[in-house]
Amino acid sequence: MKISTCLSCLFIFGINASRDFLIDTSSCKMPLFDHFSEEANRTYMYLPPIKCSEFDSLTHVTVENNTAHLRIRKKYLNQYYESDEEIDCCYSYIMRAGTPDEPDVGISWTECHSFNSTVTLQEDTVMVKCYLGADKIYENVHKSILISPDIYSKLKYSHKKQRRTKRKPLSVILMVIDSVSRLNFQRTMPQTRNYLLGNDFVEFFGYNKIDDNTFPNFNAILTGLNLNQSNAICKPNLVGYLDKCPMIWYDYRDQGYVTAYAEDWAQISTYNYLKKGFKEPPTDYYFKPYLEAAEDLLSVLTVDTMPFCAGHESEGERVLKLAQDFTKTFRYHPYFGIFWMNTFSHNHINTPSRMDHTMKNFFENIKRNGILNESMVIVLSDHGIRFGEVRHTVQGWYEERLPANFISLPNWFQKAHPEKYENLKRNAHKLTSTYDLYMTLQEVLALSMNSHVAVGSKACPSCQSLFSNIPYSRGCRQAGIPEVWCTCLGKFNENDSEITVEVNNRAFRFLRESGRLKPGVLINKLLSSSVSRSPDGKSYFLINFETVQSNYLAGYQGLFEISLNPVVEFLSLLSFTRLY
């Protein structure tokens, strides 16, 4: 979308905007950037798709009448060998197998059972190996979505409840791509974005993160808690406490929804990186053992410093297939699913382009399967890229704080709740936060099930559902966004007349006197410095620089609150971040 088109959208909705600001009110001045600005173009490079294998998968699993069948696809045998010798294949079942201290890490597997064509599976996660003589020529891990007796009972209960209350429940699916800003989504995934917008997804222009990294930002969506509250209530570093965390997927599960959670790259996953994870599976369908098996037992191809491929498929494709199979299996039942992808976006700003076509195909498939007619589909990220060259730019500072967020609602919901849908579209051009998305998920459940009463956010009592009419005049404080992460501070201007060599040197002195720059660390290079003025009269100074110590280079960024009258005075250091 060109900037002019974006501005016309804002004026249609009656929102104050200009060619300099996306939001321009008495409480928020959010700058407007071109996704292919001069700053962005310095780091942008199209990266082509990667095929994880030249061969087709030799085995696959099909589900018929809730029974899984593992099959050898014999038409592809000639891709793997050309002799007349028979291959020997076997399969093992994969199971979750943690320890008392690490209950959410680890898998085990059964002995390998031989088969030569088709076998009916007794479990849903399976490892396959095929040998030609003593040489292993093929291996893979498969996952099938089967309905257990417990889930079947839940579905019966849910349908009885629907008939009694005469309410049509709205299913929810969150497709998460880690570390992608709204503008980087536009740069690197244009096919996907165009498909989403062409199918009535609403793009949120002022969606602002509330903390630094993944855990506090995403846990806020599930719990309405900030980081301090999450640590105090959920105690993620103690075994068993995340199981007691008030995550909204438990509310959906208790109301008869079928729940699911998948996240690739298990080592850095949201609830396992430096945390204890879950003692018991947190959702009805918990795909961590399957994805862990793919990462640990198959050959992994690292691309752009990330474990992109696990065997014949990219890890992202495995997550997308889980989402497709899960939603197709439960299309006519209420479900709540989170499908998270780290392995093509977390470490490199341009890698999402490798998966653009695949992502577009995924959304085409779920539309074909009728999922967009039944579900609220949210495509989002937790934050923008947090390191790399782009973070030395003013635009990169904003992009880190403004992740991608697109929301689709089925036609029947739009017709049943026209005012709520209009509010959602209007709110797309206002300042919003992760706490608002939490409130939206609360309202969806309350609208779907009359026995659920929406619970407000403890971290942000003033935050509202995106179905509400959020005030135009809203500022970061009302949205629960701390000052350090707020993008309403005006536009940082590198050519501001207040910026002098002396001002930059005083910033460095401030950092040394506060102990942030240790003795012996030398300033190697000033990368940029800029000043902004916010609507409430405050001024801010943003500096990016490089240090050297013992021939070791490091990059840093500092954000200060300053006074400009009568001279520049440094009042406080709001953040100090190492970028490399």
Q: Characterize the main sheet.
A: 7 strands, mixed
Average of per-residue pLDDT values: 95
In the CATH hierarchy, the architecture of the largest domain is 3-Layer(aba) Sandwich
The CATH superfamily of the largest domain appears as Alkaline Phosphatase, subunit A
Count of individual domains: 3
Structural class by sheet pairing and helices: alpha+beta
User: What gap, in angstroms, lies between the N and C termini?
Assistant: 32 Å
User: Approximately how much beta-strand content do the residues carry?
Assistant: 25-35%
* CATH topology (fold) name of the largest domain: Alkaline Phosphatase, subunit A
Total count of strands: 26
Label the overall shape.
Answer: globular
Helix content: 25-40%
CA gyration radius, whole angstroms: 25 Å
Read across the widest sheet, the strand sequence of neighbours is 12-21-20-11-19-14-15
Low-confidence stretches: 1-5, 10-14
What is the CATH level 1 assignment of the largest domain? Answer: Alpha Beta
Count of runs of 4 or more consecutive helical residues: 16
Signal peptide: 1-17
Keywords: Signal
Pfam families: DUF229
Protein name: DUF229 domain containing protein
